[in-house]
Write a structure and sequence with these properties.
- The protein contains seven helices and 19 strands.
- By secondary structure, it is of the alpha+beta class.
- It folds into two domains: 214 residues, 2-Layer Sandwich (Gyrase A, domain 2); 78 residues, Elongation Factor Tu (Ef-tu), domain 3 (Beta Barrel), CATH 2.40.30.
- The strands form four sheets. Strands 10-11-12-9-3-13 form a six-stranded mixed beta sheet, sandwiched between helices. A six-stranded antiparallel beta barrel has the order 14-17-16-15-18-19.
- Helix 1 crosses helix 6.
- The chain is globular.
């Protein structure tokens, strides 16, 4: 157990590699109740989110969601999040645990008339069910006479009772596998967890922070506070496809300029050629000269190689570029590779 975002959380239940491989082959269940839920309502809700978010919420229909960013005036990522457009003119932001108070203060500080921002985190639990058989398992505890979970499209959400527990069922996740994230009343989280694990015939296993991190890193998904932060922009991080330019929002002028003129650094995927593991903070070298640092790194259970991400100047960012990583004073050969590191076989 470790402290994470103010919560005490399991790194693993049985083992990181075993849990990782179970999610890739079958299914894993994660308690992600540390994630924050901020509800935005009122006549000014849409105007607030148009100003605060780098994505265009006007593209969302009821029940749909977007991956998005809260940015500062310099275009830096205050937080990355998922925004949901729900019935009854309710907007839901699912944010990172360590940023709940920061995000709440930022949104309220914009002082948008008619917008009410409410922190629902303490009363909301969140459980992720991820893996190739996740939807098949979910169908076993799904309400009868309703369209099955396989009819829910990615980045959409519906209200359903799952294992008898009222949930918002979202087709989202952080693993690169099919699955859902289930939000329910906090006092019913145990019932939902037990209801899922009761379907052991599907091979579902409880999974901790360790597997969550190796799974997301194989997919090249950034972790806030590591790969992105208030000093990095979505353009530098290679996440420009999630930004909807051509409209004004906080930080948009900086992003417009970066798109037009280019950036001085880019987040890249780095794969070790030697049998070694890059870790956060390790220097990235080119011909013995430091050109960056690893922001996230691990030994990939799927690729069976040391993998990592880090920022380098654009001239070193092309796939195939050979680099080195300084691992405890020893230079290890590496190369820049396209993201994601892991691509599922068809």
């Amino acid at each position: 157990m470790v402290e994470f975002g103010g919560w005490e959380m399991p790194v693993y239940y049985v083992g990181i590699n075993e849990e990782h491989r179970a999610v890739r082959a079958r299914a894993g269940i994660f308690d992600v109740s540390h994630m924050g839920q901020l509800e935005v309502t009122g006549s000014g809700a849409e105007n607030l989110l148009r100003k605060a978010l780098a994505s265009d919420i006007d593209r969302l229909e009821e029940g749909q969601a977007q991956y998005s960013f809260l940015l500062n005036e310099k275009g830096g990522v205050i937080d990355d999040l998922i925004v949901y457009r729900l019935p009854d003119k309710v907007w839901l932001l699912v944010v990172n645990a360590g940023n709940i108070e920061t995000d709440l203060a930022h949104l309220k500080g914009l002082k948008q008339r008619g917008a009410v921002v409410t922190d629902k985190s303490a009363e909301t639990a969140m459980i992720a069910l991820q893996g190739p058989v996740a939807l098949e398992l979910l169908a076993d505890i799904w309400p009868k006479k309703t369209p099955g979970p396989d009819t829910i499209k990615p980045f959409t959400a519906v209200a359903r009772a799952v294992a008898g527990v009222p949930c918002l069922v979202a087709r989202t996740g952080y693993t690169g596998e099919p699955g859902v994230e289930l939000m329910c009343p906090a006092d019913r989280a145990g019932d939902l967890w037990d209801g899922i694990l009761a379907r052991r015939e599907h091979g579902v296993v409880p999974s901790g922070l360790g597997a969550r991190d190796t799974l997301r890193l194989e997919m090249g998904y950034p972790l806030h506070g590591h790969d992105i932060d208030p000093k990095t922009t979505p353009i530098e991080a290679g996440l420009g496809r999630f930004v909807h330019l051509g409209r004004e929002f906080i930080g948009s002028a900086v992003l417009d300029k970066q798109v037009a003129k280019g950036v001085k650094r880019r987040l890249v995927g780095i794969q070790l050629l030697d049998r070694a593991i890059p870790r956060e903070g390790y220097p990235i070298l080119k011909d013995g000269v430091k050109i960056g640092v690893i922001t996230s790194g691990t030994l990939s259970p799927s690729v069976d190689r040391g993998i990592g991400m880090g920022y380098v100047a654009p001239e070193y960012a092309e796939p195939g570029t050979t680099l080195q990583v300084d691992i405890r004073g020893r230079e290890r050969d590496a190369e820049v590779v396209p993201l994601p590191f892991y691509k599922k076989e068809s």
